[in-house]
From TrEMBL, chain A:
NCBIfam families: ccmC. The keyword Membrane applies. The keyword Oxidoreductase does not apply. This is Heme exporter protein C.
From TrEMBL, chain B:
Belongs to the CcmE/CycJ family. Pfam families: CcmE. HAMAP family: CcmE. It comes from the Bacteria. Heme binds at residues 123, 127. Keywords: Cell membrane, Cytochrome c-type biogenesis, Heme, Iron, Membrane, Metal-binding, Signal-anchor, Transmembrane, Transmembrane helix. Residues 29-149 are extracellular. This is Cytochrome c-type biogenesis protein CcmE. It is found in: Cell membrane.
């Protein structure tokens, strides 16, 4: 693992992976959404509004998976001080923020016709809103210090402690009475009909690839920016 | 111990302790963190008449009665353990129907009826096309109609 923590080796591998994940993601998202929005059947109760799950559920899964990755990166950054781990955390946070915001937004638009309200303060909705704020906190801390190393360290500490929110999101619908329904897809199987499940999985796989591609692009850009400022500092010293 | 190992132990212990604490504490907060009372919780909850609460459960099959004024409905909310009569005047959500989940905002009357000011429909975790739902309903009806030997 330490072998790949070297930024130079990372860049060699990241470049082709960015291309393939981006292409694969675009194809899968386009296919999954076309299948879900135009070919899949409506729901027996919700009618056509069920189609928002092809965006909402991937966003929900990936905003949590993204946060888990932030936590792992923060752990590696704090314990082993891998420069790449810091870069990964800072690169991933805004993408996770966008995904969780889209999860909240699409859920809210679905909630109005289904539940009869855009928003309630139940355990699931509130904990996902906290997830969004945690992402914003990581972004703010990473940028909030004159010394970027100090900012990344503070952001890592927050990301690590924020991990505690993930089991709360996951189990909120089981521990407490909530308006949000419990999970449909569990280890025991799925209570979503096959005709809706497959387009959902295709779209979720596609959005995962897109998240990976966007993260790799941001990581490469951040590494390039660090190199540039290091060179500028070197030049300023010699001049 | 090298500083690296010290940091590993510290960060690992902190994260583990935090997660374990949450896993232990959160389920115990059921009363405080829940969005609504189920009918069976209500007796134990010591709710006084007039206190603003939410009551949630399933709309009991066959319990919905439209009143002659055309706007008031009476129904019972059940969690299969207890059922509580509810009175509500107003528009019901699209998904409001017998056998489906509902959350009512309101307060208890002294006579034990829940006076609802607003209703939210609760959706369950099942998603299926209308044909599948029809087929399921038909199979269930046939199973009921078949004489038990």
């Amino acid at each position: 693992m330490h072998r790949y923590a070297n930024p130079k080796r990372f860049l060699e591998i990241a470049q082709p992976i960015t291309m393939w994940t981006l292409l694969g993601g675009l194809v899968l998202v386009a296919g999954g959404l076309w299948w879900g929005l135009f070919r899949a059947p409506p729901d027996y109760l919700q009618g056509e509004s069920v189609r928002i799950i092809y965006i909402h559920v991937p966003m929900a899964w990936l905003s949590m998976a993204g946060y888990l990755s932030c936590g792992v990166a923060a752990f590696a950054a704090l314990v082993w001080k891998h420069p790449l781990a810091e870069v990964a955390l800072v690169a991933l946070a805004p993408i996770g923020a966008v995904f969780s915001a889209l999860c909240l937004l699409t859920g809210s638009l679905w909630g109005r016709p289904t539940w009869g309200t855009y928003w309630v303060w139940d355990g699931r909705l509130t904990s996902v809103l906290v997830l969004f704020f945690l992402y914003l906190g990581i972004i703010a801390l990473a940028r909030g210090y004159d010394d970027p190393a100090r900012g990344a360290k503070m952001a890592s500490v927050l990301a690590l402690f924020g991990l505690v929110n993930l089991p709360i999101i996951k189990f909120s619908v089981e521990w407490w009475n909530t308006l949000h329904q419990p999970a449909s897809i569990t280890l025991e199987g799925s209570s979503i009909d096959q005709a809706m499940l497959w387009p959902l999985l295709a779209s979720a796989a596609g959005f995962s690839f897109l998240m990976a591609a966007a993260t790799l692009m941001r990581m490469r850009a951040l590494i390039a920016a660090r190199k540039r400022s290091a060179r500028a500092a070197r030049l300023a010293q010699t001049a | 111990m090298k500083p690296k190992h010290q940091r590993l132990a510290l960060a690992g212990a902190a994260v583990t302790a935090l997660i374990v604490a949450v896993l232990l504490a959160m389920p115990a907060m059921k009363a405080g963190a829940s969005f609504f009372y189920a009918p069976a919780d209500l007796a134990a909850a010591n709710v006084t008449p007039g206190q603003a609460i939410r009551l949630g459960g399933l709309v009991e099959e066959g319990s919905v009665e439209r009143q002659p004024d055309g706007i008031t409905i009476h129904f019972r909310v059940t969690d299969r353990l207890e059922a509580i009569p509810v009175r509500y005047a107003g528009l019901v959500p699209d998904l409001f129907r017998e056998g489906q989940g509902v959350i009512a905002d309101g307060s208890m009357d002294p006579d034990g009826t829940f006076a609802a000011d607003s209703l939210l429909a609760k959706h369950d975790e099942n998603y299926m096309p209308p044909e599948v739902a029809d087929a399921l309903a038909k199979a269930e009806a046939e199973a009921k109609a078949r004489p038990v030997l």
